[in-house]
Amino acid sequence: MNKKIILASKSPRRKYLLKQAGIEFLVIPPQVDESEFNLTNPSDYVKKLALAKAEYIAEKHPDLWVLGADTIVYINNTILEKPRSKKHAVQMLKCLSAKTHVVYTGFSIFCKNKAQKISRTTKTEVILKKMSDHEIKWYVNTKEPFDKAGAYAIQGLGASLVKSINGSYTNVVGLPVCEVIEDLILLKAIKKY
Predict the structure, then answer these.
(1) What fold, for 5-186?
(2) By three-state DSSP, how is residue 120 classified?
(3) Quick one: the chain helix, strand, coil %, rounded to 5?
(4) In the chain, what are the domain boundaries?
(5) What count of other Cβ atoms lies within 10 Å of the Cβ of residue 161?
(6) Rg of the chain in Å (alpha carbons)
(7) Which range among 26-35, 130-139, 145-154 shows the weakest confidence by mean pLDDT?
(8) Which residues are catalytic, by number?
(9) Residue 116, strand partner residues
(10) pLDDT value, residue 40
(11) CB–CB of 110/177 below 8 Å?
């Protein structure tokens, strides 16, 4: 195996972001039961989930670097993950309409045989525009919200709903690329450019 990095994720957005950054990697989705993680602190929640995903894959590939990640939306002391239904997506978007929320992505880079790891959380503030019921219904009917934390995709049709962001754009997409690359270099998992 000539690639030294595994992306422990089934997210097409994370795969796309790493490819855009010029990183060579394999994709092996982990089988982690996210319902077992009942933390209320959003930073701890995403960091622990990311590490669990990385560790799951690292057990099977102990010589390789494994990157695990998890992204959530946080508003009003509530963690929003992916919507379970159309009704749930509508509720989420109504909750986010015209308000500031925070997108948290936790990531872990781990190599079992080197006994090295880095786990971090990146956060970005996002404000969505005030949305009418008609706009929310239209967006939910596009089906874009259904595999996205917070029920919107900043990189897709959901871009039309985003008024402003403060922080990393790629973090909102699902992986803070700048921070991940810095840490891969720090761990010597990749060479400097």
Answers:
(1) Maf protein (3.90.950)
(2) strand
(3) 40, 25, 35
(4) 5-186
(5) 21
(6) 17
(7) 26-35
(8) 70
(9) 111
(10) 75
(11) no
